[in-house]
Model the fold of this input.
Amino acid sequence: MKIGIIGYGSMGRMITEKIAASGVLNAGDIFVANRSKEKLQTIPEGVIVCESNADVAKNSDIVFLCVRPIDLKNVLSEIASSLSTNSFVVSLNGSITFDMLSKIFSGKIAKVIPSVTAEVDRSQTLVCYNEKVEEKDKQELEKLLRTFGNVIELPETEVGMGSELVSCMPGFIASIFDVLCTSAKKHTSIPDDQVVKMVLQTMCATGELMLSKDMSFEDVVTRVATKGGITEEGTKVVYEGFPDTADLLFEKTLEKRRSTAEKAKKSFEEE
Ligand SMILES: NC(=O)c1ccc[n+]([C@@H]2O[C@H](COP(=O)([O-])OP(=O)(O)OC[C@H]3O[C@@H](n4cnc5c(N)ncnc54)[C@H](OP(=O)(O)O)[C@@H]3O)[C@@H](O)[C@H]2O)c1
Done:
């Protein structure tokens, strides 16, 4: 199998480097192109740089479109005549629908949303497929995606909320724990960086504990917050005060997601 990466920015580079390093493909079976040529000076050894996006499309069974939504329509239109009925196009963007993409390329299409935790091979990568994609195509794509973490298939209608849960969640988690640590620092002389490390290690270990022992959030709370104890004072504050903030968070992000999808649709429909 040969694959192509169009757009060597944050996502294109990550996917190229992870797949090349994994050994699931020979580096010589990976074809890359980017608008500005300077970025391509750092591609992994053996990966092939193409002169044009069309050359990437011609050479590849699976073509990853790793460009911003504003560039997606032009790039797909540019390569459409170089794709065959067997080509499998993978869009990295959650806002551009299969309906929009199919107007330009009517074959096999997937949408793939990796998370930043791919950097440590622990992405919870979302994937959804249009009706043309067959089981063997899914298996081939997912083998590539597993080189940087888990793969979760969702229907297209759930990719938005799915993205909140895995792609946006590192940002939500970081901001929540940033607030917690900022508050904690007011009450201690432990150095700031040590406070952060203590909380981060405990956060990761709590996740590992829950996953390995199949514990729920409630299990952990019950285990730590004994009746009338100190932890219970804190967990009560969270359960009383935080639900409104969490509701607002998802209301705001989902509203933003709807308006982004609307804008993406308009830009895609423009001539
Ligand atoms: N970043 C994330 O965490 C993340 C997560 C999930 C999904 N996504 C999605 O992934 C896609 C890519 O995001 P990104 O963060 O990787 O963007 P990025 O860092 O801006 O990279 C986009 C790349 O596309 C190149 N490009 C633009 N037009 C091109 C063209 N006509 N031909 C060839 N290359 C072209 C750009 O080249 P230049 O060097 O010339 O600018 C740039 O290197 C987006 O749809 C985004 O929504 C991103």
About this structure: The first helix runs from residue 10 to 22. The longest strand covers residues 123-129. Strands lie at 3-6, 30-33, 48-49, 62-65, 88-91, 108-113, 123-129, 149-153.
